[in-house]
Amino acid sequence: MSDEQDAGVRSIQAEDSDMNAGPSTNGELTWTNAGRWGPTDQLGTLNYITPELRIAAAGLVRVGETVSMAKPIDTQASAVNTRPA
User: Fold this and answer.
1) pTM score, two decimals?
2) Do 4 and 56 contact (CB within 8 A), yes or no?
């Protein structure tokens, strides 16, 4: 990883530590990004993926192979899948 790419990763890690802490319904502290980017924000933590970070990530590509991250959806009912898709 280059120094520039490493700096981008460190920047995101620093921002993560700035998340708001607030009480949950059971009294324990929970971490949330709610409201971090304003009341009309639709992206949430995708705001972390900046154009500069995309460029840094593209520099890490070594092979032009794609890998599916899709999870198979079971459409058949069974004992472990009582509500098939």
Assistant:
1) 0.43
2) yes
